[in-house]
Amino acid sequence: MTSPSPSDPCAAPGGLLTVDEARARLLDLARPVGGVEQLAIRSALGRVLAEPVISTLDVPPYVNSAMDGYAVRGADLPVEGEVRLRLVGKAMAGAPSDRAVGEGECIRIMTGAMMPEGADTVLMQEAVKVEEETVVVGPGHQPGENVRHKGEDMAIGDCVLEPGRRLLPADIGLLASLGIPEVRVHRRLRVAFFSTGDELVPLGRPLAPGQIYDSNRYTLHAMLTRLGVVLLDMGIIPDDREAVRAAFHDAMTQADVVMTSGGVSVGEADYVKQTLDELGKVDFWRMKMKPGKPLAAGRLGDALFFGLPGNPVSVMATFYQFVQPALLRMAGALPEEPLILKVRAAERLKKSPGRLEYQRGRLRRGADGEWEVVSTGRQGSHVLTSMSRADCFIILPAESGDVAAGETVEVQPFAGLV
Ligand code: AMP
Ligand code: MG
After folding, report:
1. Average model confidence (pLDDT) across the chain
2. Ligand with the closest atom to the CA of 284
3. Domain membership of residue 238 as a residue range
4. Ligand index nearest the alpha carbon of residue 270
5. Cβ(310) to ligand 1 under 6 A?
6. The domain that contains 143 carries what CATH number?
7. Looking at the structure, do residues 324 and 355 belong to the same domain, yes or no?
8. pLDDT digits (tens, 9 = 90+) for 9-61
């Protein structure tokens, strides 16, 4: 059986796909892989939670003060005029008062200190006058102010983290605040990747005429590292029947995901497609997308296969738009809606109708203080500086033509807080 030619969209079961169709098909192929491990919470950052985290504590565990000041009884607060409260003790964080607050009394209290019995209100120290052992309180205070309640952050029995959550720094602290030292997370995906193409040269060797350095493997290494997968870098595979077959066979038996760049576009004189056909079931798609028209995807034994385009910007665009959501799904993560914002185009953006484009842009503040986006210049799929200078994709729908300066466009920012 021969694989459908990517040059003929009607021959491929996938044919010419919209971005949404391709994304849906990939997500359908990407089934969560099994396997769970138990990790110390410090090692669990970025990992996918395999169990719900149910609070077994109230946090905070006791009623405490939100301010440095004086713990008083709300009933003693004056509606008008002043009252004088007798200072009868102090409560520090970690050193509660053993004395209750009676009528006409108060206790010096610090932020985080347990509220003494009898008191229900904290007056900020700046809001009162202190005369030796007496605190003078004026009107305008609310009973109950400046008090943090038991369990107001998390209460016993609350589900505070759902399975499928990718753990963020706040989650690690939250687990610690519950006294949880270890969590169960999904095992890391194993991703094998290699480059194809006889023009490619590994770093450290001089370039002969007609050769280029293999940059895609480094970009993929970086993007996969951020995703937290186990990396199996298989190098550059020469365009040789046996070498290609051996590489795919090796990769599919060791990894959950096999990924290549190059060799999926029209007119490639290589053995990649033949080998994929022998070893698995892979479809070659052409997508109504720029950059990144060709994409191959399917199964190689138990592994999922992605054949990314060769051009460096296409590799990154297809990775972020298709591969990353699929890998996250395989890793057990809950689906994440990409952050897409509407901003003003600061300048004219060139585009022909027909394909959805992920142009590269930079966000900036306009003269009026509103956010706007500028292009990073040359937008060829081989121009990696267009990506490196960018901090967002400018997403222009398939049917759109040129965008005039001042029109609203959608952007997908690359980065948030780390
Ligand atoms: P292909 O899809 O193999 O025809 O490749 C398309 C373009 O991407 C060609 O200009 C290739 O030289 C280039 N290319 C392919 N693989 C890589 C790579 N690993 N690093 C940099 N450029 C590449
Ligand atoms: Mg090639």
Report:
1. 94
2. 1
3. 19-34+188-330
4. 2
5. yes
6. 2.170.190.11
7. no
8. 333 444 689 999 999 999 999 999 999 999 999 999 999 999 999 999 999 99
